[in-house]
Amino acid sequence: DLSSDKKALLDFAAAVPHGPKLKWGNNNGNTSICTSWVGIKCTSDGTRVITVRLPAVGLTGPIPPNTLGELDALRVLSLRSNYLNGSLPNDLLSLPSLRSLFLQHNNFTSNIPAFFPHHLHILDLSFNSFTGSIPSNIQYLTRLTRLYLQNNSLSGAIPDVTFLKLKHMNISYNKLKGSIPFSLQTFPNSSFLGNPSLCGLPLRPCSKKKITLWAIVAFAIVGGVAVILLVVIFVFCCLRKVGTDETRVQIRKPNPTGGRGDKPRAEYGGGVVENDENKLVFFEGSCYNFDLEDLLRASAEVIGKGSFGTTYKAVMGGLTTVVVKRLNQVVVNKKDFEQQMEVIERVGQHQNVVPLRAFFYSEDEKLLVYDYYAAGSLMALLHGADRIPFDWETRVKIAVGTARGIAHIHSTGGPTFTHGNIKSSNILIDQDMDGCVTDTGLVPIMNSLPAPSSSQSLGYRAPELFENQNYSQKSDVYSFGVLLLELLTGKQPIQSPVRGHMVDLPRWVQSVVREEWTSEVFDDELMRFHNIEEEMMQMLQIGLGCVVRVPENRPAMYEVVGMMEQVRIRSPSD
Ligand SMILES: Nc1ncnc2c1ncn2[C@@H]1O[C@H](COP(=O)(O)OP(=O)(O)OP(=O)(O)O)[C@@H](O)[C@H]1O
Q1: Kind and range of the H or E run holding 250
Q2: Which atom from ligand 1 is nearest to the alpha carbon of 323?
Q3: Which of 261, 285, 354, 368 would bridge with 438, disulfide CB 3.0–4.6 Å?
Q4: Nearest CA, atom 29, ligand 1
Q5: Any binding-site annotation on 325?
Q6: CA-to-CA dists, residue 417 to 407, 459, 471, angstroms
Q7: How far is CA 240 from CA 231, 232, 246, 267, in A?
Q8: What stretches of 125-166 adopt beta strand conformation (E)?
Q9: pLDDT recorded at residue 215
Q10: What atom of ligand 1 comes closest to residue 426's alpha carbon?
């Protein structure tokens, strides 16, 4: 009953050191547990504790037995982002009603337990130091929809299990080895990355040790056909290439005299002269070990042409992939350019900002090197041709992450430092499906305000910028507001003409009466999720607060972050 639940919670708080946020008191009778204790929710009749959410409250040490494991009506337990360590007590692992267990971002070091509550829907043990192999008993969690084990120290082979309901799974960045079981091959490669000894779809194929005679014959036939096909494709490509502007280019070492020679115009590095002064400058902490020559030799593919120049995906030696931005219209000299690169490097030190890894400056050529974000941009996620349904949790994560990234840029860059080009194509998605801001710090070295690279880009531009070019941090706040509305509505920033007039997203949202927001404004895809309406409404209000016309009336970016975090604290999702 509630008094035994209360005792279990107090025993837990007494045994586990924690920060000042947790002020559970023994006074005010039992009912106060359900109404005023931080992180606690009860059944509607107030008789049992069903939710314990204590994210980031400084919990330290192991979870003691006979505390939380006594809450036998508990459905949701979140102790994420604390300093918990040791192993998980058995009573906790046998809670009969537990549906969601969030223990990510702690310091647990034991093996993954061999058994978990039977009815678990969500299990998140990521970003800990769990060791050992993934137990095959995990297959008995037949209702599991989400399984996150990434960034631990798990080893051994992945058990060959079939999860009927599993929709999201991530076991990346462990030490797993062997082949990926067939039943898990439908998950994207981001779910498996960072396990160098893992092979099979969707990663690289496993090498076969024993090949039968039949297999050799089959390989020979398939190989022969493949060679013929390749020859046909090669001839076809050569024919197509003649007279067309090429988008896929082979980078060759430049003419040592610095002349362009016969290099195709689409190549980056067209003006590169290699000598001691003109070297690729890497920043500290960069894990790459290629040099300018490797970069120039890489096979490069144009992935976009933006307002600052052309962006290439460059693959070196079939292994290292980076993104190279070839800037045009740089208006500053080498010294100022280098100074700005240092600023960019400094503001890039945040998990929600894409770090600049290296740069190159010569009179004719300015190159920037970034990590390649395989998941692409927020724009592609929201509006791309091969987009997948995009759930509320992921949208909120990306929105909050992006806001944190911009707030960091503003605070580290100084009061006059702005991003200047916040838009969904400049928000890249990392392996944790978090949003990361790219193209930071380019405006000061280019023609001050970027020319819009598409009509949609105009939709992010704050109204004051159509009158003057006084870019401020509040103009970034406006652009972020548009981006937040884009995430909530699933709509592009500029709507197709209504009676001959282009309508921007903020005006369109404001034109819908508040009572109809739920049915009219929010993305249809979000309608299938339950209990998110209140949170969506609050996020929409924050977005609208960012896009007010008068810059001074917009909140600062750190305030936007605070408001968004408040929404999450009031109704955290996990
Ligand atoms: N590091 C990266 N990893 C993966 N994709 C990237 C990376 N950087 C940029 N892109 C993608 O490449 C494309 C071209 O980017 P680019 O910055 O040249 O143009 P843009 O973002 O469309 O416009 P703008 O120059 O105005 O920012 C965009 O779709 C962008 O999302």
Answers
A1: strand 248-250
A2: 1
A3: 354
A4: 425
A5: yes
A6: 11, 22, 9
A7: 14, 12, 9, 18
A8: 146-148, 155-157
A9: 62
A10: 21
- Given a contact cutoff of 8 angstroms between Cβ atoms, the answer to whether 543 and 572 are in contact is no
Answer whether the bond into residue 463 is a cis peptide, omega within 30°.
no
User: Position of tokens 């290099």?
Assistant: 263
How much distance in Å is there from the Cα of 427 to the middle of ligand 1? 9
Structure confidence at residue 296 (pLDDT): 83
Measured by CA distance, the residue closest to atom 25 of ligand 1 is: 306
End-to-end alpha carbon distance in the chain: 24
Element (H, E) at 367: strand 366-371
- Do the beta carbons of residue 67 and residue 95 sit within 8 Å? no
Nearest CA among 481, 372, 356 for reference residue 429: 372
Q: What is the CA(312)–ligand 1 centre distance, in A?
A: 9
33 and 5 in contact (C-beta within 8 Å)? yes
- Identify the segments of the chain with pLDDT beneath 50: 241-266, 273-276, 572-574
The answer to whether the CB of 428 is under 6 A from ligand 1 is: yes
pLDDT digits over 196-220, tens only?
A: 899 988 888 887 655 555 666 676 7
Residue 270's pLDDT is: 53
Would you say the CB of residue 203 lies under 6 angstroms from ligand 1?
Answer: no
Q: Determine the distance separating the centroid of ligand 1 and the alpha carbon of 303, expressed in angstroms.
A: 7
Could you give the ipTM of this predicted complex? 0.97
CA of 115 to the centre of ligand 1 (A): 45
Residue 251 has what pLDDT? 32
Supply 497's token pair: 């003409």
Dihedral sign (CA 420, 423, 426, 428):
positive
* Of the candidates 270, 241, 277, 278, the residue with the CA atom closest to the CA atom of residue 253: 270
Classify 321 as helix, strand or coil.
strand
* Ligand 1 neighbourhood includes 439 CB (under 6 angstroms): yes
Q: How far apart are the C-alpha atoms of 367 and 269, rounded to whole Å?
A: 8
Cβ atoms of 78 and 23 closer than 8 Å? no
- Among 301, 370, 425, say which to mutate for ligand 1: greatest number of ligand atoms within 8 Å of CB: 425
Smallest CA-to-CA distance from 156 within 100, 186, 198 is with 198
Whether the CB-CB separation of 422 and 406 falls below 8 Å is answered with: yes
